[in-house]
Amino acid sequence: MMWTKEMKDTLRTFAGYENFSYKDIAKLMTAEYGEGFTKNSVIGMAKRIGIPRREPVIKPAIKPKEFTIYDLEWGMCKWPLGEPYDRPPFLYCGKTTGNTGRSWCPMHCKKAFSSSFSSSQAALALRPAR
Q1: Fewest CB within a 10 Å sphere: which of 11, 68, 73, 84?
Q2: Residue 29: which domain range?
């Protein structure tokens, strides 16, 4: 694909907006020009035409909500988190169980009813730490 002067000017304009990622710019330019712009093609052209490098925006990790037994309601997963010998407060998954009528979310149902967790592994998991 050949970059025209108009395309480069559009890239300069979009790159000036900090809330647009290069992926967003590629989508906008594809919609505007009908060409197949990719994030990497936009980054490469930005470098070649002298647009300053952006520092990556690091979004803070979202800590999953932890639920105690008192927080749980009907339709919430009651799978215990942590180790068998942890001290209180005991925490639970709390994700939705859907309309299944089960006590666990689909992921924990699969884990509970999976045959890959052998009885020897269960015995090791329940053995007290030394």
Answers
A1: 73
A2: 5-48
